[in-house]
Amino acid sequence: MRAGSWVMLGAAAAVGLAAGLGGFTFLYARGGSYLTDDPAACANCHVMKDQFDGWAKSTHRSVAVCNSCHTPPNVFRKYLVKGLNGWHHSRAFTLGDFHEPIAIKAANLAVTEEACRHCHHDVVQAIDTHPGGGALSCVSCHRDVGHLH
C-alpha cells in the first residue's frame, strides 16, 4: 500500500472514531431531549434538579417551560442559544469546572430578561416609564419567579 493510502485510511479511521464517539456521547447524554421543549431535559444533569423542582412548584409551571424563559422566541436564535449552552454545559460538566450551585451567566440573564419583557410587555412598559427614568431589570427583583433559588 502506498503512503497516500495509509494517510487516507488513517484519516477515515479518525473521522469514524470521532463520529462513533460523538454519537455514543450524544445518545448517552440524551442529546435528543435537548432539541425538545420538555423541561425534564433540563433535569438530565444533577445540578439542575433544584431548578427543575423549583419550576414544578412555581406559578410559571402552567404557562412556561424552561425554553420559554431561557431561549429567545426566534427559532434560529433559540437553537443558537441552545447549541452554545449545550457546548458550554457539556464542556463544564466533563471537565468539572462549573459553579455549584449553578448560576446563570450574563448572556443567559439577558435572554431571560428579554423573555420577561416579551410576555409581560404591558406591565413592563408602565414600569419603564416611571419618573426615575431608565429601564429596570425584571430579574433583579423577581429572581425566584420561574423557580425558587
Q: Within the CATH hierarchy, at the fold level, what is the topology of the largest domain?
A: Multiheme cytochrome fold
Question: Which class of the largest domain in CATH terms?
Answer: Mainly Alpha
CATH architecture classification name of the largest domain: Orthogonal Bundle
Q: Which structural class do the helices and strands define?
A: mainly alpha
CATH H-level superfamily of the largest domain: Di-heme elbow motif domain
**Cα distance, first to last residue?**
63 Å
- Total domains, how many? 2
Helix content: 55-70%
Secondary-structure element string: HHHHHHH
Largest sheet: none
Q: Based on DSSP secondary structure assignment, what is the total number of beta strands?
A: 0
Q: Kindly provide the radius of gyration, computed on alpha-carbon positions and rounded to a whole number of angstroms.
A: 21 Å
Shape: elongated
Low-confidence stretches: none
β-sheet strand percentage? under 5%
| Total of helices | 7
Averaged pLDDT: 84
Concise overview:
With 149 residues, the chain is mainly alpha-helical. The chain is built from seven helices and no strands.
